[in-house]
Amino acid sequence: MTSKRVAVIPGDGIGPEVTSEAIAVVEATGAPVEFEEFGINSGRWHRGEDLIGEEELERLDTSAGILLGAVGDPAVPSGVLERDILLRLRFRYDLGVNLRPVRLLPGARSPLRAANAESVDMVFVRENTEGPYAGTGGSFRVDTPDELALQDSVNTRRAVTRAVRYAFELAAARRGHLTWIHKTNVLTHAGRLWAKVVEEQHQRFPQVEVAYQHADATCIHLVQDPGRFDVAVTDNLFGDLVTDLGGAVAGGIGFLPSANIAPDNQHPGLFEPVHGSAPDIAGLGVANPTGSILSAALLLREIGFEEQATAIEKAVNAAGTAGRLSGKTREISSAVVEHLDR
Ligand code: NAI
Ligand code: MG
């Protein structure tokens, strides 16, 4: 098998701590992957440098995928690192789908009494480029009593179709159930387009059962009856909110992986744990690396190493069953490596 080059952006705070453990786990699977590290982090902002250099961009462009730890530094103005690193790559590669599996792992404790491994096992597909996050709108008559701020929700047939089609494919490969989430009762224009696209794609996947839920009601159901969700698809803003709630239900942000992928082009995907740089625990060696390890598994699956991806997911489960997904960062990753079936 020819080896593939994976770009690694460890980033800030606990990012480097968890990423190095994810790399160790991937290496232990024997996947033919070569890692190339990029020092893209807040240090550059402090030194007045560009966050990503042109040559680095070219290297990133031609990588098979990108594994990111986290970016975030309390001393950098809010939004700068997100915009110049995460959003920049997301838009450059047109990463139209944000995939967030939410699974209650053995050994993880959900705040919900009724939660268990069967009921909390779902995947959210979040549209990743549009909605209210597209950045269109404007401010008018600023600093006057008539000040006006507009923030539009952008919904194109192309991007909605891309996310919805991906969700149907996933649902067909899992339990054959898809929930789409919106606020069609008030956001009627966007809602109509989403409804039409869901209907169209449903015709291509008649075997998938489709349910609709309002975004607010989703928050109730996720807490009271998480088992009703398997695959769920929604727009950028609703997806941001409900996946955080899903993460809480799954027993903690340190366990959750995510993937930003481009289902309709050849650009590299960006894979990262859901958590941020956690400055409060950075450097202590206590960050949970599970989210990063599972993100690396999603990356391996996306670039064609299904066997190694599944091996990692099984090892994480087995380590959890053995009660070993808590403790210090290194202890957790060693437990995962020990449970790899080799
Ligand atoms: P955070 O996710 O970094 O931390 C929230 C809480 O969860 C903290 O108490 C932290 O200690 C804990 N936590 C997070 N990951 C953990 C892990 N793996 N193991 C154990 N505990 C963990 O979110 P916060 O505090 O809102 O943001 C910190 C910085 O990270 C900010 O600068 C923010 O902008 C950035 N951030 C970056 C993200 C990214 O790179 N994709 C995502 C979210 C936030
Ligand atoms: Mg969020």
UniProtKB/TrEMBL annotation:
Residues 5-336 form the Isopropylmalate dehydrogenase-like domain. Pfam families: Iso_dh. Its cofactor is Mn(2+); Mg(2+). PROSITE patterns: IDH_IMDH (PS00470). Coiled coil: none annotated. Keywords: Manganese, Metal-binding, NAD, Oxidoreductase. InterPro entries: ICDH/IPMDH (IPR050501), IsoCit/isopropylmalate_DH_CS (IPR019818), IsoPropMal-DH-like_dom (IPR024084). SUPFAM superfamilies: Isocitrate/Isopropylmalate dehydrogenase-like. This is 3-isopropylmalate dehydrogenase. It comes from Actinoalloteichus caeruleus DSM 43889.
